[in-house]
Amino acid sequence: MPKGKSVFARVPSQTGRQLPRAPARQQLLKRHNLALVLRQIAASRKLSRAQLALCTGLTKATVSTLVDALMEGGLVVESDPERGLIGRPGSPLSLNPQGPAGLGIEINVDYVSTCVVDLTGAVRQRRLLAGDNRLLRPEVVLQRAARAASHLWTEAEASGLNVSGLGVGVPGLVDFDGVLHRAPNLLKWQGIPVAELLSDMLGRPLRSVYCDNEANLAALGELWFGQRDDLRDFVFVSGEIGVGAGIVIGGELFRGVRGLGGELGHVTVDPMGPACSCGARGCLETVAGQEALLEATGLPLKAGTAISGPGGSVAELLDRALAGEQAAVIAIEKAGRALGIALSAFLNVLDLPTVVLGGFYAELAPWLVSPVTSELADRVVNHSWSSTEVVVSSLGADATVRGAAGISLRRIIDDPAAWFGDVLTKT
Ligand SMILES: [Zn+2]
Question: Do β-strands 354-359 and 234-239 pair in parallel, antiparallel, or remain unpaired?
């Protein structure tokens, strides 16, 4: 896990739970300090107990008591002191890679992706199923996803992990209760409590379940596990068959008042353009979505093409662009201009300094960045004194499923006392 990234990023709540506002009592103080110490360990890596006391302002005795509790709860491990250091080096503390793990599932239009991530952020298991989910009933797709996830869960357990939470990303509008209300590219999916159904199908105990829009989870994946430590305010653009946006402001996901925002793919870029799956005309997806782009270059619309690697149509599109084929380059640049136009509307309203290109847009970035940047320069009014940075996702097609798997782990790091409930009576 990159240094300094995850610990201060708060996980969005679907329960609306708020910490009490009453004066801090002893147990609340211990709960706060426990989280403070764990966040510092997660952010800094290899701090000793003495260094932790210096960083947090707590006494060495208090730090030791809290660290003992975190170790007893399986969240932290203490290694032997490093050799060769002058004086008496302390024993470095780190998150326990064999502690709790998160299960992530991404159900998208043409694939299902699953993975298990451990407490350090490392991907321990991953599985991918390509297939056009538009042709299948929701319960059939959910069963496929549950079987794949169950297989991974068994593998994770065999390697000593304790899968404790489930996160699910879907390509549609998800409310704060985790109900998928509408997915423009999966027309049969309406009013479906996706995470709850998957949890029932898995039939194993889970401490938390969470469902959100795939672009929102991709943005969190980039925030927590991406290579850039300084990304705190950005819009993550998820390019798949649909096009979504996850907005992060001040290191926190912005989901809108009802959790239904971020539908960048349905921003109008041409009012007289082609009909869109949402019922409107000329949405961004009809010009810059994966299938629109493949159609423009005469490539077949294979399922899972953006993530299945060699042999997929996106790989073929990439090869053609690399070979300098005019039709491919022109189609990608046209998509880039449309993306820039739609994004300029977002950025004029939200004033965000960075755009992260994700999904298959990350692969096409060498041809997309220039037209996107050019449109933003022409259309974002603050550009002349505060230009917008356009960068490429470091997680590629895995951003959503890693963000989904990370949700339950962030909750543990943010509030470890809730993970092992009786610790407050011991410390
Ligand atoms: Zn639309």
Answer: parallel
